[in-house]
Amino acid sequence: ASSEGYLRVGVRAVLRNDRFLFEADSAARASPPDSFRAWAGVFAELREERFAVREYLNGFSEEDVDLGRRLNVSVNLAPDAFGYERDGVGLRLGGSVAGRLGGGVMWRLAAAANGLFNAGGLDSGRVVAVAGAAVQPTERQALIVRIEGGLLDDPAPSGEFDLGFEVGPRLFDPHSFVGTRAAWGTAEYRWFAWDDLLDLAGVGFAAFLDYGGAWFGDQDVRTGGNVGLGLRLGATRASVARTTRIDVGYRFGPDVTGDRWAVSIGSAVQLF
Prior knowledge:
Blueprint: E1 5-18, E2 35-48, E3 51-54, E4 63-66, E5 70-78, E6 88-101, E7 105-118, E8 121-138, E9 141-153, E10 161-163, E11 177-179, E12 181-197, E13 201-215, E14 224-234, E15 244-252, E16 261-267
Antiparallel strand pairs: 1-2, 2-5, 3-4, 5-6, 6-7, 7-8, 8-9, 9-12, 10-11, 12-13, 13-14, 14-15, 15-16
């Protein structure tokens, strides 16, 4: 390790004992058996440390934007001798690169893939990629763009992509788009107008555009989008650069149900 980065290698092991206890009125139902399982693995992470100090990007306060590079890999073994139905090997590979173009535009690309393999081949897997960029044309204004996409194979129940409200098109209800395939993007222009209006909070404004969706492999693509304006509230002395959003806008696309106009209150989209 040094001030410019580090290489970390290690081993990990997990012992898991599951026991089930049913209430009296459900005693007639079959009880799943208690189980004891274990798995072990090795991992490595190589990281380059490089940060850009910025204000008025994700929030009103000063923040360190990670522009370094990272690579991580892990291999986990779960043999049947450790309590599983069959031998399994879990692999994971992930990494990211980032930088600045001409000292102005900050960008970052990241991707991660993992899979569980057994005698029958791939049991389940996940691939996700993210791209983001930002530019600050003036001290108090910022334009951010973020695009994400992913693919799942045989996920665990409730492990599907779940878009809407906080993740994905913000003016759609939670769980509006669910599936094993997903793609969505956002563009937002922010103006951090006042740091401490009435000595209460920082106040800013934003214009935004979102589009995307999620669907299952045997279904047609399901997408929707929204465009609108919003209010941004935050604190200049917060330990984390983040704002609360109050957005109003118009929903569009082939899979919109209900009213076209909507209001949404939540956390603002982060650049990286």
